[in-house]
């Protein structure tokens, strides 16, 4: 029992360390040579081959200089989520609302009325600001961040591991649809477990869910580029749950500090690109842990049933339409005499 507990603690520390130290490697990726260029063997070349190599090298340098670097992508993502989204929330809450409160207090004091005006005015202003600015900006940020996160992950993978193994379009759509559904159901499961009446137990198990979910978010980019399927990726998380729980713990703790979901989402979008780099640089354990933690099993069964029903319904529709077309084609047409 003591050995198992020590292994859990050591794997938690291992994952926590990889998550923190891997963030600092993001600033060194641009200086590294991609693996596809470094793996080539040096062979003697003729004068014509040297000139061709110099021309191709010049084209490669021009192309690399024109493309944005990993640090530039991360800086752009942080500037949008931190400088625009998060800063607008802070300016409204700590600059605009205090000024309006000060003006309202002066007007109420001169008019001799009570300060009940501010009680409904602050709620109205906050609701209007959230509906007209924060919510559309938050939705836009989610869409933009999806492309930026994928761009950062692909650039980091290309720098350190070479070209990714791209699947077919049908497999890509099926994999992404299943993964998004599974992650949404797992998040709902974490929220429901948090409502357990036992004090502390529900919050602790919910925190484990969030840590594993954040680790899955980060490692999924690398595993997908490696050609691993969804069930294989989930098996990695469940069989080495202590490591991945420690890996997602820093991001889970930092995003749980703000009271507002919008602020938590902005902080997540600022730190997550660095966590993607950490997952790309991490060397996760290859041997399975002593006992797996099958937390994804309920949502996997639900997702499988939903997908099986949708696929069977689609096949029934296709078969019925094909039978109709065959019956109409086999019906003899009347000819005029």
TrEMBL record:
Q: How does it sit in the membrane?
A: Multi-pass membrane protein
Membrane-spanning segments: 74-102, 117-140, 172-192, 198-219
Q: What keyword terms does UniProt attach to this protein?
A: Membrane, Transmembrane, Transmembrane helix
Pfam entry (one): EI24
Q: Name one GO biological process term.
A: macroautophagy
State whether keyword Chloroplast applies: no
Q: InterPro entries from the entry? A: CysZ/EI24
Ribosomal protein among the record's keywords?
no
Report the principal subcellular site: membrane
Residue ranges for the region (Disordered) are 315-337
What is any one of the record's Gene Ontology cellular component terms?
Answer: endoplasmic reticulum
- Name the residue ranges with Low complexity bias: 317-331
Q: Where in the cell is it found?
A: Membrane
Similarity field: Belongs to the EI24 family.
Family matches, as PANTHER family? ETOPOSIDE-INDUCED PROTEIN 2.4 HOMOLOG, P53 INDUCED PROTEIN
Q: Report what the protein is called.
A: Uncharacterized protein
Q: Per the UniProt entry, what species is this protein from, by scientific name?
A: Patella caerulea
């Amino acid at each position: 029992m003591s050995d198992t507990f020590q292994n859990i603690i050591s794997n938690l520390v291992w994952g926590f360390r990889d998550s923190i130290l891997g963030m600092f490697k993001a600033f060194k990726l641009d200086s590294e040579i991609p693996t596809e260029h470094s793996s080539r063997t040096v062979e003697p070349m003729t004068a014509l081959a040297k000139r061709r190599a110099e021309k191709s090298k010049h084209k490669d340098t021009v192309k690399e200089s024109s493309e944005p670097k990993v640090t530039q992508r991360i800086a752009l993502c942080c500037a949008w989520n931190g400088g625009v989204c998060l800063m607008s929330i802070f300016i409204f809450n700590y600059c605009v609302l205090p000024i309006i409160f000060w003006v309202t207090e002066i007007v109420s004091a001169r008019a001799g009325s009570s300060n009940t005006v501010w009680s409904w005015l602050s709620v109205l202003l906050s609701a209007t600001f959230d509906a007209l600015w924060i919510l559309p900006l938050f939705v836009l940020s989610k869409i933009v961040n999806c492309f930026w996160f994928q761009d950062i992950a692909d650039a980091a993978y290309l720098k350190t591991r070479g070209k990714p193994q791209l699947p077919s379009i049908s497999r890509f759509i099926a994999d992404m649809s299943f993964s998004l559904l599974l992650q949404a159901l797992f998040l709902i499961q974490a929220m429901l477990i948090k409502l357990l009446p036992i004090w502390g137990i529900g919050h602790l198990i919910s925190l484990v869910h969030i840590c594993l979910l954040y680790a899955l978010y980060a490692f999924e980019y690398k595993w997908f580029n490696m050609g691993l399927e969804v069930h294989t990726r989930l098996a990695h998380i469940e069989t080495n749950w202590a490591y991945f729980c420690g890996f997602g713990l820093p991001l889970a703790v930092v995003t749980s500090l703000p009271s507002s979901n919008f602020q938590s989402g902005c902080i997540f979008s600022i730190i997550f690109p660095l966590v993607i780099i950490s997952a790309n640089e991490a060397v996760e354990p290859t041997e399975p842990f002593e006992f797996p933690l099958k937390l994804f099993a309920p949502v996997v069964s639900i997702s499988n049933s939903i997908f099986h029903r949708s696929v069977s319904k689609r096949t029934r529709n296709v078969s019925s339409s094909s039978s109709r077309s065959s019956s109409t084609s086999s019906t003899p047409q009347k000819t005029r005499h």
